[in-house]
């Protein structure tokens, strides 16, 4: 048997690449290296802007040429970095040598020793990870997440008055509306959205053990904490003044915890929509030419939501592991974070794939309102709650002498099928006011939805 040509090991880079490929712009090895080059070049420019060690600020065209190295970073640069790293056996050192090579080509070799000046690898890495994760969240994950919320809000508003039977514990229960139930999920996701949007992306830039030791020895008259803060903030990050060799990764644990929380709410949505499809509440719109089952031609399987479930579970497993691992580093530094952070893109990839499936799935379902009404009409016993509550109000107001209304309705309805006629006869014989009787007699399972319709308006409030 001949060997296969090189193949992607992860389905994210194979079968599902079209859905998650945008993440590669940020959370791939190449995306990380481009960010490292960006940080190294901006640090070099920042030093010359301050006139460190007798340098003068670079001319605008020189700065533009340096920044073009990042803007034009492509396959040739990826290959060159790989070639250099094959010798250095150190990824960040390879980036330093790569930048030095670019300085030579631009006629700026006199600045070579300012490359990576007073930096430990983590000064470059932590800033690069913060930049790539921030951009991946802002440019890829959040747009897809917001699109799912927007779709849910649209469906909630469309179906706000679509009365349906609730199923608490899987059993017939007080009716609601499909719109209100979808609004519940949208509201939960909106709350997490605000938390993710408020994420602080922290960065440190303080040397081998976070003490500025080399900095102070090289230039004792410089206010290094201020230089560090201003540099980190110039990258659009939040400065962390107290660290070991590494930035402590607490912001990452917080962010991944929130993404994982969002995943679990989405998982709840996927299982509920799957169940509504199983009940027939939602009809699936078959895609032209698609096959639901290899042997049963009639089937339209809810694969979008099943795929989403699996990928949300995988994403949360990875992100939860990262959140737990990254907050611990032995003494001033160990390398557990180096290996684990390389899987950030995998964690986000499975979440993005799930979001894509949920969004597509929500666009391929149609509510069967007639079936919802049919289901409600077969479960008049759910009005038992309404009847016993009205009786209690009547007793409290002195308009009834009935004892233990709950037990009375329990005897009538628990574990039994009770139809409209039986309930009407029961209500007609109750010791309550005529006004209360008329309200109850006018009630049907389809109209016993409280203010579910109005509650949809709470979205975005």
Automatic annotation (TrEMBL):
Domain of life: Bacteria
Catalytically driven reaction(s): (2S)-2-[5-amino-1-(5-phospho-beta-D-ribosyl)imidazole-4-carboxamido]succinate = 5-amino-1-(5-phospho-beta-D-ribosyl)imidazole-4-carboxamide + fumarate; N(6)-(1,2-dicarboxyethyl)-AMP = fumarate + AMP
Pfam families, A to Z: ASL_C, Lyase_1
The EC number(s) this enzyme carries: 4.3.2.2
UniProt enzyme class: lyase
Pathway noted in the entry: Purine metabolism; AMP biosynthesis via de novo pathway; AMP from IMP: step 2/2; Purine metabolism; IMP biosynthesis via de novo pathway; 5-amino-1-(5-phospho-D-ribosyl)imidazole-4-carboxamide from 5-amino-1-(5-phospho-D-ribosyl)imidazole-4-carboxylate: step 2/2
InterPro entries hit by this protein: Fumarase/histidase_N, Fumarate_lyase_CS, Fumarate_lyase_fam, Fumarate_lyase_N, L-Aspartase-like, Pur_lyase, PurB_bact, PurB_C
The organism of origin for this protein: Agromyces bracchium
Domain spans labelled Fumarate lyase N-terminal: 58-308
Organism placement in taxonomy: Bacteria, Bacillati, Actinomycetota, Actinomycetes, Micrococcales
Name by which UniProt lists this protein: Adenylosuccinate lyase
GO biological process: 'de novo' AMP biosynthetic process; 'de novo' IMP biosynthetic process
GO-annotated molecular function: N6-(1,2-dicarboxyethyl)AMP AMP-lyase (fumarate-forming) activity
UniProt keyword annotation of Lyase present: yes
Record key words, sorted: Lyase, Purine biosynthesis
Family label: Belongs to the lyase 1 family. Adenylosuccinate lyase subfamily.
């Amino acid at each position: 048997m001949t060997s296969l040509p090189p193949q992607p090991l992860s389905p994210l880079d194979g079968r599902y690449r079209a859905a998650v490929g945008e993440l590669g712009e940020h959370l791939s090895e190449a995306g990380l290296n481009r960010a490292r080059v960006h940080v190294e070049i901006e640090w070099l420019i920042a030093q010359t802007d301050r006139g460190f060690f007798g340098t003068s600020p670079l001319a605008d065209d020189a700065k533009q040429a340096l920044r073009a190295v990042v803007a034009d970073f492509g396959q040739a640069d990826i290959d060159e970095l790989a070639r250099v790293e094959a010798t250095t056996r150190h990824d960040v050192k390879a980036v330093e040598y790569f930048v030095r090579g670019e300085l030579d080509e631009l006629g700026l070799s006199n600045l070579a020793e300012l490359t990576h000046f007073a930096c430990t690898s983590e000064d470059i890495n932590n800033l690069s990870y913060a930049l790539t994760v921030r951009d991946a969240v802002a440019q890829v994950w959040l747009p897809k997440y917001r699109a799912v919320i927007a779709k849910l809000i649209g469906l909630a508003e469309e179906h706000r008055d679509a009365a349906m039977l609730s199923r608490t514990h899987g059993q017939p229960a007080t009716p609601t509306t499909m719109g209100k139930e979808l609004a519940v999920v949208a509201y939960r996701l909106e709350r997490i959205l605000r938390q993710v949007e408020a994420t602080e992306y922290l960065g440190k830039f303080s040397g081998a053990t976070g003490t500025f030791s080399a900095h102070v020895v090289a230039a004792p008259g410089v206010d290094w904490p201020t230089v560090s803060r201003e540099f980190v903030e110039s990258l659009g990050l939040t400065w962390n003044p107290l660290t070991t060799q590494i930035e402590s990764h607490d912001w990452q644990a917080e962010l991944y915890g929130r993404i994982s929380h969002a995943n679990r709410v989405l998982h709840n949505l996927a299982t509920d929509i799957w169940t509504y499809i199983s009940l027939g509440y939602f009809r699936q719109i078959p895609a032209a030419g698609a096959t639901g089952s290899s042997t049963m031609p009639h089937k339209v399987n809810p694969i979008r939501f099943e795929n989403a479930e699996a990928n949300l579970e995988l994403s949360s497993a990875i992100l939860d592991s990262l959140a737990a691992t990254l907050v611990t580093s032995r003494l001033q530094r160990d390398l557990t974070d180096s290996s684990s952070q390389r899987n950030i893109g995998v964690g986000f990839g499975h979440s993005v794939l799930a979001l894509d499936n949920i969004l597509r799935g929500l666009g391929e379902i149609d509510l069967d309102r007639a079936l919802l009404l049919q289901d409600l009409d077969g479960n008049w016993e759910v009005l038992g709650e309404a009847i016993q509550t009205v009786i209690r109000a009547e007793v409290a107001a002195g308009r009834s002498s009935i004892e233990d209304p709950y037990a009375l309705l329990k005897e009538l309805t628990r574990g039994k099928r009770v139809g409209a006629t039986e309930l009407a006869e029961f209500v007609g014989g109750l010791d309550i006011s005529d006004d209360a009787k008329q309200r109850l007699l006018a009630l049907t399972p389809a109209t016993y939805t409280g203010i579910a319709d109005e509650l949809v308006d709470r979205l975005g409030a």
